[in-house]
Design a protein that fits this description.
Layout: E1 14-16, E2 21-26, E3 33-35, E4 44-51, E5 59-64, E6 83-88, E7 94-98, E8 101-106, E9 115-121, E10 126-134, E11 137-144, E12 156-160, E13 170-177
Antiparallel strand pairs: 1-2, 2-13, 3-12, 4-9, 4-13, 5-6, 5-12, 6-7, 7-8, 9-10, 10-11
Length: 191
């Protein structure tokens, strides 16, 4: 699997490293999500994400169907139907978001510049997230059957990279590893 370059919103996305690295640039008041290429209907799937920047753009990783609106603010209640994400922002906290809205999990930690591990059981609809607390150490942060996840639908890895906000344009980089490159193109190692 890789980022799906055929299903992106047109918001200044640049894909490199075999479509495993996303560099983005969002104008103000724009929102964007993109999908991975692997459809998940049955079985258990795992991938890792590394957000390489520390700017104020809200970023998230999760699962979504192809039917969602990929140009809306996912943190606004009612904007998601069959998706769920783990997100972090300049607020400096880790939150989950699904069709019922946002839940704050940790108000003092951000996952920017950390590896986020995502496990999705497409058969049962269970979704769990872990994040790196030290080199090579992952800590579970959220695990449940999020509201709106329907195990009868096909899901894709999903990456939200847009809260352009009302201020200056936002830029950033999100690396993904579906098993191809555990070093995220050399930007992350165990040392």
């Amino acid at each position: 699997a890789t980022y799906n370059v055929l299903h992106p919103p047109p918001h200044g996305n640049t894909y490199t490293q075999g479509n495993l690295k996303l560099d983005f640039s969002l104008a103000t008041n724009n929102f964007a999500s993109i999908l991975g290429t692997k459809g998940m209907y049955d079985g258990i799937f795992y991938w890792e994400t590394y957000i390489a920047d520390t700017n104020t753009t809200t970023k998230a990783v999760g699962v979504s169907t192809q039917q969602e609106n990929f140009t809306v603010d996912i943190t606004t209640s009612g904007n998601l139907t069959n998706s769920a994400y783990l997100l972090s922002s300049s607020l400096g906290n880790i939150r989950t978001v699904d069709k019922d809205g946002v839940t704050v999990l940790n108000s003092s930690t951000t996952y920017q510049q950390r590896i986020i591990a995502t496990t999705f059981n497409a058969t049962t609809g269970d979704l769990s997230f872990s994040y790196e607390t030290a080199a090579g150490t992952l800590t579970n942060v959220a695990s449940s059957n999020f509201d709106g996840i329907d195990s009868n639908l096909v899901y894709f890895p999903a990456f939200y990279h847009g809260d352009g906000g009302a201020s200056t344009p936002k830029i950033g980089t999100i690396h993904v590893n579906f098993g191809q490159d555990a070093t995220f193109a050399g930007t992350k190692t165990d040392s």
